[in-house]
Amino acid sequence: MTERTRLAIIYGSTRPGRLCDRVVNWVARELAHYPLIDIDLIDPLEFDLPFQHDREHPGVAALTARLSEADAFIVVTPEYNHSFTASLKFLLDLVYEPWHGKPVAFVSYGGISGGLRAVEQLRLVFAELHAVTVRDTVSFANPWGRFAEDGTLENPLDARKSLVLLIARLNWWSNALKPARATRPYRSIAA
Length: 191
Fold this sequence. Notes:
The chain has helices spanning 20-31, 58-69, 86-94, 116-128, 157-183; strands at residues 5-11, 37-42, 72-78, 103-110, 132-141. It is of the alpha/beta class. It has a single domain (5-188), classed as Rossmann fold (3-Layer(aba) Sandwich), CATH 3.40.50.360. The chain has a five-stranded parallel β-sheet, sandwiched between helices. The longest helix is centred in the last third of the chain and has 27 residues, at 157-183. It is globular, with a radius of gyration of 16 Å. This is NAD(P)H-dependent oxidoreductase. GO terms for molecular function: FMN binding; oxidoreductase activity.
């Protein structure tokens, strides 16, 4: 039996006029067709996050609570200067335990590489956060002009096929890891 998956989609950009809004809208609209997925959009701009690392800050507590509820994550990330954004790194570093023992997938966008250099660096960060990254990605090379304001994608067939595979594998990991976390919480593992 397959259980419901609580999926958090995380915005990887906080820049004004960000393309991230359109890409997230496309992902969320595509995943709305999956009846066993509950989507929570995590936009760093919606939290009153501090300017420095302060895990006691109310905005961090709210972010931690939302991330803790998720069974799996999709990070929508741009590539800036061959890497992911400073705002995304800050968000990842603000919390620790909510990532443990959970799967993470990526939808990326950028220039000629489609954001894949950012994704490769994010895999290293999530390994340190004790998360499992899904190999499959959805990547948009030179996406400017392909997304309408509401997230409608021009020529979506290939991206949709990639997203179907990504979500199938993310869901597999979620269904495997959720009972493992329930049986033995990840924080209980000690050397």
